[in-house]
Specification:
This protein is mainly beta. The protein has one domain: YVTN repeat-like/Quinoprotein amine dehydrogenase (Methylamine Dehydrogenase, Chain H). It contains one helix and 31 strands. The chain has a five-stranded mixed sheet, with no helix packed on it. The chain is globular and about 45 Å long. About 50% of the residues are buried.
């Protein structure tokens, strides 16, 4: 009887310890903003009958969602691309109110605010649109290669990952095409760090490092299904969608500093100046990681099936692909 009580006490103690661990408990603190019913500029919901697959990831979409997938911040508004109604929606960060929805190309899946403009990659239109943030008007449409779906800014030029042609295209800030360069198989996420462009090759299980002139400097092996890329200022972090992990590369020389477990379907990633945020598409969560150790500090529930994340200087914003909503919480 005494032995049994001792075991029960130990079990209770272990449960109590686990309940206090930040990487076990899910903090229910994210607010959620619905995007339902937001449409303008002639954009309409695509009719989805049966099993229609998202062209980005193979995730099942339903007729009840517009497929909000990409997100960026322009200094005043958070912009969300809803790919199944071919539109972008802006949300005022000061109060979370929806401040307009605007038609763009076919299946917008990537957004970037850079050089004073909003850049929209339209996966099935094979183009990138330049949008004026104050009005939502399309200022320019630029033809690129097959399947544009990733965007990055190097401080001077815009880089586009073309998923179906296994290339990246370099654009000037005025929208001129400066070149297209071969990378790995199905390039997805892009990031600029250490005077280089880092490209996640989703079907190549690798990251290609390019010079800003487009030359391949080196290719590094990472986990299974690399998806997103982010920099913490010193290192490059890569999410491995099918590997349920993130890989840390030293930006100076690409040395592999370790692979760390996160959730299912690790996708988008952002750095808030102190910690890393990783979106887990399959788990419908966001995890906050320590850049020094890769340890999970906290886990947050989101809406269904998120892919991307943006940081506005105070909060993180996560579009929920399967919920037609955006989740938000304070970063630190």
């Amino acid at each position: 009887m005494i032995l049994l009580k001792g075991r029960v006490f130990k079990l209770v103690l272990l449960v109590a310890i686990a309940a206090t661990m930040p990487n076990v408990i899910r903090a229910q603190t994210m607010s959620e903003i619905s995007l339902s019913g937001t449409s303008s500029g002639g954009a309409q919901m695509m009719s989805l009958e049966g099993a229609t697959l998202d062209g980005d990831s193979g995730s099942l979409a339903s007729a009840s969602t517009a497929g909000p997938e990409a997100v960026t911040f322009d200094g005043t508004y958070v912009w969300v691309a809803t790919q199944f109604n071919n539109s972008i929606t802006r949300i005022r960060v000061s109060d979370g109110s929806i401040a307009g929805t605007y038609a763009v190309g076919n299946r917008p899946v990537a957004l970037l605010y850079a050089a004073g403009s909003l850049w929209v990659a339209n996966l099935l239109s094979n183009n990138v649109m330049v949008v004026t943030p104050s009005t939502g008007a399309i200022a320019k449409t630029i033809a690129v290669s097959d399947g544009p779906g990733g965007l990055a800014y190097d401080g001077t030029n815009i880089w586009v990952a073309n998923r179906n042609s296994n290339t990246v295209t370099k654009l000037s800030a005025k929208g001129g095409v400066l070149g297209t360069y071969a990378v790995g198989k199905r390039p997805m996420g892009l990031a600029f760090a250490a005077d280089s462009i880092w490209v996640a090759n989703n079907f190549g299980n690798s990251v290609t490092r390019l010079s800003t002139s487009g030359a391949v400097l080196k290719t590094y092996e990472v986990g299974k299904g690399p998806f997103g890329v982010a920099s913490d200022g010193t290192n490059i972090w890569v999410t491995n969608y099918f590997g349920k992990s993130v890989t840390k590369l030293q930006a100076s020389d690409g040395a592999n500093l370790g692979t760390f477990k996160v959730g299912d379907g690790a996708a988008g990633m952002a750095f808030d100046g102190k910690t890393l945020w990783v979106v887990n598409n399959g788990d419908s969560t966001v995890m906050r990681l320590s850049p020094s150790s890769g340890e999970v500090i906290a886990t947050y529930d989101t809406g269904k099936g998120p892919f991307s994340i943006a940081f506005d200087g105070t909060r993180v914003w996560v579009p929920n692909f399967g919920s037609n909503s955006v989740s938000m919480t304070t970063a630190n």
